[in-house]
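Forwarding these from the shared drive since the link keeps breaking.
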Amino acid sequence: MNTREIKTIVKEKYGQIALQNTTDPGATSCCNSSSDCCGVDYTVFSENYDTLDGYNKDADFGLGCGIPTEYARIEPDHHVLDLGSGAGNDCFVARALVGETGKVTGLDFTEEMIAKATLNKQKTGFQNVDFILGDIEEMPFSSDQFDVVISNCVLNLVPDKNKAFAEIHRVLKPGGHFCVSDVVLKGDLPEKLRTDAEMYAGCVSGAMQMNDYLEVIHQTGFQNVQVHKQRKIEIPLKILQSYLNPGELQDFLTEETGIFSITVSAEK
């Protein structure tokens, strides 16, 4: 698939997720719940936010693969940018850390997600959280604007990772830093898992090899790159069986092949 096709698939899929459980009687969606949208279980990567200050259940669709704010060193007065902010989950957690004197901006290129996040914001009454429609590869922000950039299981969906990290570098203030949770690979995944459009939107096929992912960060000019956390994602057997024949499934389960969630930070 080319870049336009990839972005169209991702936008449509996450638009469908945003419409699930909507209160708008005119909206339609093939999604029955946050854990099963059109046959794909998106929550296999997610972590539990229940005990975090600022957690907003309405904004949590279980689409993350870590908790980037855990290692983001967010402080009061910081201006934080969340890339692929979805319904606003990480933005509201970041808002609890920056307080009333800081600011949080969420960027997402799915109109339905922006609408959902804006509705969730209105319920909170926060005046220092904004949600902006835009593309991570071409962010609608001036340079040297943010203290911290976070993202949760989104950058792997961006077709051009070099552009994404170059844009992160551009919009960060000198001395600023990012902390992102993302999905990476170790070893070679069967081709069917890498190319299928449903699995792409489920955070698998767009993922890079872990070493290549970290090399992109280094090449962009970031310093002090640290992997704070990594865990192997256990894909449910029923999902693997949908894409692999018995022989391929046995190879996948026994070889040193895996899908991992990592949380990584670096400084500008």
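-- next protein --
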Amino acid sequence: MTSAVRTLVVAPNWVGDTVMALPVLDALAAAGREVHVLAKPHLKSLLSLAPAVTAVIVRGTTAESIARVRESHCREAFILPNSFRSAWLPYRAGVAARFGYRGNFRGPLLAPAVSRPRQRGHQVEDYVELLEAAGLMSPASWTPRIETSPAVRERATEVLERARVRTDGGPLIGLFPGAEFGPSKRWPWQRFAELTHALRRTRGDVQLVLVAGPKEIWSTVRIHEGSGRIAPVVGADLDLADLAGLLERLDLLITNDSGPMHMAAALGVPCVSIFGPTDPNRTRPYGEDHQVLYANRWCAPCFRKRCPLLHHKCMKEIGVADVLAAAGNTLRDPG
């Protein structure tokens, strides 16, 4: 009996991009590959929730990463980012077959170098040509999925209990006001504060939590204070696996275009997503149970970290009433 081909996947650096790449890992596992993922340290706990992943190789310095890839004895690599360094690492580690898209002067590092597709739909389908170059089928589903463990779910219950959030009452709605990309992707914090009161007025039994990552804690606390502390702040001290356990408990997530948005969608949690400078056709939460709010201004999407016109109307033109209506249409009632 022959052993499975050990395959290296060089993961993207961003949380959302990594989640959107999970269907590629599913396709590789379905083709009999043993999937080893080279990823930044903070992504290790998230990738541990992906059913297709056999092992995670943590990136370090260039020399450390090359040594770790060599030790994995992978026979082929799928290089998902488009950077030069992401192709350099498996090349220097001596991985024989290196599937990646041309660009950024890295063609000689790839074997084969695959031409990028001209027409692009949603980002989850960006890697079709890489799979085809290896003679592999597309995944059975392009919907990203992650699965939590009983231990992760138990820790999520403890987090909510410490925050004094009832889990046996009305629907639990999370609000994620962050976006690591930059301030242009963030709906104004004052709107989030107003939204907490509007949600309570609309439905008295609703439970609210403000979800924060470690880099969003201060802006989230600002909303907490500005709204009269009616929603506790949770999540800032959690790794991505435990954050997934927390998100899984929600009946709805109201969020900017962000990594937790894609995590929630991969867990089957409906999202109301607020888009401004980025393109929802490319990075909306994948699936049918979500609503996207997008002003569709002439200047969007600009993909800038700060509004180059200084007015930020792509986000400011989306009102509290718009988000409230979308939440009412999307909410999954556990009753």
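The longest helix spans residues 189-202. Residues 70 and 94 are 7 Å apart (CA to CA).

- D.
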